[in-house]
Design goal:
The complex is a heterotrimer of chains A (332), B (590) and C (359).
Chain A (H helix, E strand, L loop, with lengths): L1 H33 L14 H10 L6 H14 L1 E5 L2 E5 L6 E2 L4 E2 H36 L4 H15 L2 H15 L14 H35 L2 H8 L4 H30 L2 H7 L4 H11 L2 H29 L1 H5 L1
Antiparallel strand pairs in A: 1-2, 3-4
Chain B lengths: L1 H22 L38 E6 L14 H7 L7 E3 L10 E3 L7 E2 L5 E5 L14 H10 L12 H6 L22 E5 L2 E5 L7 H5 L27 E7 L3 E6 L17 E6 L3 H10 L4 E2 L7 H10 L4 E2 L2 E9 L10 H10 L2 H8 L1 H4 L1 E3 L27 H11 L6 E7 L3 H15 L4 E7 L4 H4 L3 H7 L1 E9 L5 H9 L18 H12 L3 H18 L2 E8 L2 E2 L4 E2 L3 E2 L5 E2 L5 E2 L2
Parallel strand pairs in B: 1-10, 1-11, 15-16, 15-17
Antiparallel strand pairs in B: 2-3, 4-5, 5-7, 6-7, 8-9, 9-10, 12-19, 13-17, 13-18, 14-18, 20-23, 21-22
Helix pairs in contact in B: 6-7, 8-11, 9-12, 15-16, 15-17, 16-17
Chain C lengths: L16 E12 L2 E13 L4 E5 L6 H9 L13 E8 L2 E2 L5 H7 L4 E4 L3 H4 L6 H12 L4 H14 L5 H4 L9 H13 L5 E5 L7 H18 L2 E6 L2 H7 L2 E6 L2 E7 H6 L4 H8 L54 E2 L7 E2 L5 H12 L4
Parallel strand pairs in C: 3-8, 3-9, 6-7, 7-8
Antiparallel strand pairs in C: 1-2, 1-4, 4-5, 9-10, 10-12, 11-12
Helix pairs in contact in C: 4-5, 4-7, 5-7, 7-8
Classes of the chains: A mainly alpha (332), B alpha+beta (590), C alpha/beta (359).
Chain lengths: 332, 590, 359
């Protein structure tokens, strides 16, 4: 098990390096090939050639991509200085880049944004897991009933409706209309109550979308599991039905749910872009949108890395949990 | 790629409209809103235009801005966005500043830190200012003439202090002999020869060439003082050190900022700023529809960007809360320009054929109609700039419809009676501009002018349409753009667009590449003129030459719909700030 | 099993297990599936009944019916229609409270399933699963239950049972898994043990070990055992009585000795003919059962076996295709029944002249 974890961690690091390199390539090499100059993005309307050259040096646009990449990676552990045009800017450890657009290190921005996205993802996750799994189980147990059909119809709607529709609708009704929820994000440390209040709408909206998917998944899986021989065995032992469902069937049902959960959570941390934009949450997704709009390449790179790290780590956690749940994975 | 993005945007907008329709009845609108969020009654539609709405001197409260766009920089020498200049008056002071008065009156500059608008020498090349008593920084130390000089000098350090306006640099040191304070060898870092500070209270500017708009340039935040020991160079915009009535408490890029009253600022030292609220906050949002809804709901007082409400919000506001809405001129002209380096636009008649063939009402509609888009434009000086002539309309654009006969005549005169083929260049991130390009394409087809629309990366404007070489090689015969003045004079508006000496290899704004010695000469005369009214007459002349040369097809003198909460007091739009409210005068009723 | 006539419905029998006119029908979109259609038999303690038939003949459905597993956990499915009576130790199970039947399940009647790999939960250790089975019916602490589980694992021949109890099913070999399954079934000393194809998934040598084990355990515990199989060889080793099922009904039943040596139904002949025999050289298969089992939705009229029966035309007038033969006592036997239109003499002649020599 220990060797397995170490092996997986090494794979994670390699994976992140590859993602970084690819992102680097996309943002710095390709623009060069297509003839547009990233340096121009960082200077004002009337910049003189000298200034542009200075930025170009600071961005190391003249260096090979691999050299730029090496400087970036070493900056994470050692910090780095951007020098050019006779001046330099220092970026503290861990240096995930420096934004010449907003004149700040990228890492503090990510640090500032990450808790928002984590709050959003974690709260929504709790809601959709509860809602989705319970709905799915009940639907499976009452297959074909009115409840089942109603729940699955709502779930189909939930899966099909885009978040900016349900989001705007919930905002229009509960925030602008009824005025129940202001829907403004406040840091947890500042006021847990307001933090909670500000996140209810995004949580519910996001959870609705995912709960719908999870309900469908849980229902299908549960129905499949209920047909398994070992469920019949459990009944043949004389176990009570709640034990058969709650212990034997649920344990197996959770496996695929967990797999999907890992990917979803990872992707969500990487950028619940629509949700954060709709509800105005100052998280990573919103930072990404802004960064793309501003062509703030270092920030885009930073967010991409965090997103990649989140996906990879979430999958690692899922794989480890998988091993905990399923002895066949652990012991083979 | 661009198409996909736009269709998604359209989808989102559609969804917003559907939602708005669905819940239209539940929203109370009317500027009523929740308890405690609204003070007085909204004073009426356009109550803030050319007059002061809800005049009041009541102090206190929190002035709440919301916006979707952060400033390019809050550093006084680096900011170039119009709303940043307006907002900067909260925390920066300048020798002179636009008059705190509605509309046209704001075009005049009045003394701020200086005792008067400057003593001008006979040759109009030397300006001498004396500082008032009681000017202080937020830590209580006095503001001296050296701090003003140092602040202005920062613009020269383009490697660190980039992005801001370069007017002062061009007026004071056009050859850029000074290298900026960070590479300045003199001990006090005040090596710029064109500015002298004989004592703490006196500052003297020596211009190589007279410039009648020089006081306008000194009214820009770029002329604000910066204290050397507080200068954090490129990071100064994170937390500028205040010389104005409010000081910086916190700022997170793209999230928001907060200012509180600067207790060291002395009211008697400042004849301009009312400084009514105790606290000023800016919240930055990503969802424009959400922003409009929150404004209407009364959660915020006004949009700091003041770029106009979105279509859903506009409809809702005009229907249910018209008294909270103003419809000001923004000082922008939206237009198409024909680079004369791209054939057949080297021929005046081909340019004019396009002007006649265009459907001007359709272009106006593409911009948002008469309210949200603006009035049909007839020339290249907008109503908010000195020199505007309401009766001037050489192409009879006010008719609002294409003149196909004239267009065909011009095509014949151009030697292309069957029409020709060209490319329209348009920014891919500005939906109204894309809409105008499409309108133009449809109208031109009727006279045989075939066009392709090239949607280029809107963030790369300087390198794409701002590079004449690129324009020529890509064959951009028609470029869709817009322009607003840095300050309300012909020098700020017309000259950058049409003076041949302003053609640059990159970051060019004279897209037509007009280089007419007669026009250039008019600018020299106008700039040397210190009487704004007289200068305006000369710019009017230049406008005639430019317009009749047919390089430009103006679409609209832009107007937009902006929201003013019922709590706001002392509200009026200012020509000096492109039709935005004069932020420094605003107050809030509790 | 005895051949005494079935007593009137509703009266408790004197046998330990008695099934009377059991019918288990499943409504489906295609029609009513008559999986079991009027089955009756009895079984005494200490005896072993072998139920034989092809897949789809209703063997397993019968066993699950006795266990009451057609009535629990049928979420959203159309319920099976069940009628008849099942008497176990003087209690009628069909009319009993479901929870009471649940309490009997696993304690008085236990079941060994066909595929021990899929029949055991992959996420729980073997020990835990046996402990769970014990603790449902016994109010004891985990330690006591585990002791009991290890004891059972030892009894069914698992080496180092104390350690192996902590292994997961996938870590056991096929035979070991089936032993563990048997241990789980026996942990509560059930009086009725149903083994549904207990050896099908195992290789031949292991099969024999498992069958030996079941026989030994039966002798030790004195339980009644039902062995369900399609393999006559298995029953030959274990069963006291044999019941041959075809199309949801019993076509022949009787003492194992008689059914083996004087089978009275052409279907049984077919089964015997397709039985591999170790003691004889493999010759040509004389009487393979040709064709496929009948549709349980749309049963052939008359004798269900008639479409596949080589002797369907022996009885005159095509009666085999119009009238269903009833189960009748074979003259001169003690409880040997058969459902065939041919006369006893005809069957005796065919058996001795045509079938037996070729087996």
């Amino acid at each position: 098990m220990f060797a397995y974890i170490v092996r997986r961690l090494v794979a994670v690091i390699v994976m992140l390096l590859v993602v970084t390199l690819v992102t680097f390539g996309i943002f710095f090499a390709i623009p060069k090939l297509t003839g547009s100059d990233p340096a121009l993005l960082y200077v004002g309307k009337q910049a003189d050639p000298e200034t542009i050259e200075g930025i170009r040096q600071k961005l190391e646009l003249g260096d090979p991509v691999l050299v730029q990449f090496w400087h970036f990676v070493s900056g994470i552990v050692a910090g780095r200085d951007y020098t050019g045009g006779g001046t330099s800017v220092h970026c503290d450890v861990p240096c995930f880049g420096y934004s010449f657009r907003t004149e700040q290190d990228i890492w503090p921005v990510l640090q500032d944004r990450l808790p928002v996205t984590l709050s959003l993802a974690a709260g929504a996750c709790v809601l959709w897991l509860l809602g989705g799994v319970i709905t799915g189980v009940v639907s499976a147990l009452k297959r074909g009933s009115l409840w089942d059909r109603a729940a699955m119809t709502v779930a189909l709607g939930g899966v099909s409706l885009p978040i900016y529709f349900t989001g705007l609708l919930s905002l229009a009704v509960f925030s602008y209309g009824l005025g129940w929820l202001d829907g403004e994000y406040v840091d947890f440390a500042e006021s847990p109550g307001e933090w909670f209040g500000g996140l209810i709408l995004p949580w519910v909206t996001l959870a609705f979308l995912y709960a719908a998917m999870y309900a469908r998944l849980t229902r299908a899986t549960m129905l499949e599991i209920l047909g398994e021989d070992y469920i019949r065995t459990a009944r043949a032992k004389g176990l009570r039905e709640p034990v058969v469902i709650g212990k034997h069937a649920m344990r197996s049902t959770m496996t695929p749910v967990l797999t999907i959960l890992g990917m979803d959570l990872g992707a969500l941390v990487g950028g619940a872009i629509l949700t954060e934009t709709t509800f105005n949450l100052p998280g990573l997704g919103q930072a990404a949108v802004k960064a793309i709009g501003d062509r703030d390449l270092p920030l885009i790179l930073g967010v991409t890395l965090i997103a990649a790290a989140a996906v990879v780590l979430a999958n690692l956690v899922v794989d480890l949990l998988y091993a905990v749940i399923d002895p066949r994975v652990r012991l083979s | 790629m661009a198409t996909q993005r736009n269709s998604r945007r359209a989808l989102a907008a559609g969804a917003a409209l559907v939602v708005a329709a669905l819940v239209g009845t539940t929203a109370c609108g009317g500027g009523g809103g929740k308890d405690g969020k609204h003070g007085g009654k909204a004073p009426g539609f356009n109550a803030g235009i050319d007059k002061v709405a809800s005049a009041s001197d009541k102090k206190g409260g929190e002035l709440r801005f919301i916006g979707t766009q952060d400033a390019d920089s809050w550093d006084p020498q680096r900011g170039y966005y119009g709303f940043m200049w307006d907002f900067a008056r909260f925390y920066t002071r300048t020798l002179v500043t636009p008059k705190a008065a509605p509309g046209k009156e704001s075009r005049a500059v009045v003394p701020d830190m200086a005792t008067d608008t400057g003593k001008v020498s006979a040759d109009k090349k030397t300006y001498t200012f004396t500082l008032r008593d009681g000017l202080t920084w937020e830590d209580g130390q006095p503001i001296t003439s050296r701090h003003i000089k140092y602040g202005i000098e920062r613009t020269w350090a383009q490697d660190k202090i980039s992005g801001g306006p370069l007017w002062l640099m061009q007026a004071l040191d056009p050859d850029k002999t000074y290298k900026g304070p960070y590479k300045d060898d003199s001990p006090d870092k005040l090596g710029l020869k064109a500015i002298e500070t004989p004592d703490d209270k006196t500052i003297v500017f020596k211009l190589p060439k007279a410039n009648g708009d020089f006081p306008q340039m000194l009214a820009l935040p770029a002329a604000a003082p910066v204290r050397p020991d507080k200068d954090t160079a490129e990071k100064y915009g994170q937390k500028p050190f205040s010389s104005g009535p409010y000081r910086w408490v916190s700022y997170t890029p793209n999230k928001g900022l907060e200012l509180v009253r600067n207790e060291k600022w002395k009211r008697e030292s400042d004849p301009v700023r009312k400084a009514l609220p105790d606290k000023i906050t800016v919240k930055l949002s990503t969802n424009a529809d959400d922003m409009d809804n929150r404004l209407i709901a009364g959660d915020y007082d006004l949009d700091i960007n003041a770029t106009g409400m979105g279509s859903a919000g506009r409809q809702k506001a005009l229907q249910s809360a018209k008294a909270n809405v103003d419809n000001p001129q923004t000082g922008f002209i939206r237009y198409a320009v024909f680079p004369q380096t791209v054939a057949p636009f080297d021929n005046e008649h081909c340019r004019k054929a396009v002007i006649y063939a265009a459907d001007h009402t359709s272009l106006q509609t593409a911009r948002g109609g008469p309210d949200a888009g603006g009035d049909l434009a007839t020339g290249m000086i907008p109503p908010s700039v000195e020199g505007y002539d309401p009766g001037y309309d050489p192409f009879r654009l006010k008719q609002g419809k294409p003149d196909l006969d004239k267009a065909k005549e011009e095509l014949k005169a151009c030697g292309k009676p069957e029409g020709f083929k060209t490319t329209i260049a348009v920014r891919n991130n500005k939906p109204p501009e894309i809409a105008t390009a499409e309108s133009l394409q449809a109208a031109l087809k009727k006279v045989g002018i075939q066009t392709d629309i090239d949607q280029y990366d809107g963030a790369q404007t300087t390198g794409i349409i701002g590079a004449p070489k690129n324009v020529k090689s890509k064959g951009y015969g028609i470029i869709i753009m817009g322009w607003g003045a840095d300050f309300p004079s012909g020098q700020g508006f017309l000259q950058p667009l049409t003076d041949g000496r302003f053609i640059l290899d990159s970051g060019n704004n004279n897209y037509g590449e007009i280089n007419d010695p007669a026009i250039n000469k008019l600018y020299d005369q106008a700039i040397a003129e210190t009487d704004p009214a007289k200068a305006g007459k000369i710019f009017q002349e230049a406008n005639k030459k430019v317009t009749e040369g047919g390089w430009y097809l103006p679409f609209v003198f832009e107007k937009n719909i902006i929201w003013r909460s019922s709590r706001l007091t002392n509200v009026y739009t200012s020509d000096a700030y492109n039709g935005r409210y004069d932020y420094a005068s605003l107050g809030v009723a509790k | 099993m005895t051949t005494a006539p079935v007593p009137a419905p509703g009266h408790p029998p004197d046998a330990f297990l008695e099934v009377r006119d059991l019918r288990i029908h499943f409504p489906t979109d295609d029609g009513l599936v008559r999986s079991v259609d009027g089955l009756s038999f009895r079984l005494e303690k200490g005896r072993t009944l072998g139920i034989v038939g092809e897949s789809g003949s209703g063997k397993s459905v019968t066993s699950l019916g006795i266990m009451g597993l057609h009535t629990v956990g049928q979420y959203g499915r159309r319920r099976a229609r069940i009628s008849g009576e099942i008497w176990l130790d003087g209690k009628e199970l069909m009319s009993a409270d479901p929870d009471e039947v649940r309490r009997l399940r696993g304690r008085e009647m236990a079941m060994i399933f066909q595929d021990p790999l899929s029949a055991m939960h992959p996420y729980f250790t073997v020990g835990a699963q046996i402990v769970e089975a014990y603790r449902v019916h016994h109010d004891v602490d985990k330690k006591t239950a585990r002791k009991r589980a290890v004891e059972l694992l030892d009894r069914v021949g698992i080496p180092q049972p104390d350690q192996r109890a902590d292994d997961y099913p996938h870590q056991f070999s096929g035979g070991m898994r089936q032993r563990a399954m048997i241990a789980m079934a026996l942990v509560n000393n059930p009086e009725l043990l149903i083994a549904d194809e207990p050896t099908t998934a195992l290789d031949v040598t292991v099969q024999a070990q498992i069958l030996d084990l079941i026989r030994d355990l039966q002798q030790e515990f004195g339980s009644a055992v039902i062995i369900i199989t399609h393999d006559l060889g298995v029953v030959a080793e274990l069963a006291d009585d044999i019941l041959v099922m075809y199309g949801g009904r019993c076509v022949e039943r009787g003492p194992a000795e008689q059914v083996f040596h004087r089978p009275q139904h052409p279907y049984t002949w077919g089964l015997l003919g397709s039985m591999p025999r170790i003691d004889r050289e493999q010759t040509e298969r004389l009487i393979p059962v040709k064709g496929s089992p009948p549709s349980l939705i749309d049963m052939p009229p008359g004798c269900a076996f008639s479409p596949r029966c080589p002797y369907a035309d022996v009885p005159a007038g095509g009666i085999t295709r119009t009238e269903r033969p009833e189960l009748a006592l074979v003259p001169g036997t003690d409880g040997h029944h058969s459902a065939c239109h041919m006369t006893h003499e005809e069957r005796a002649r065919i058996w001795t002249e045509e079938i037996a020599p070729k087996l």
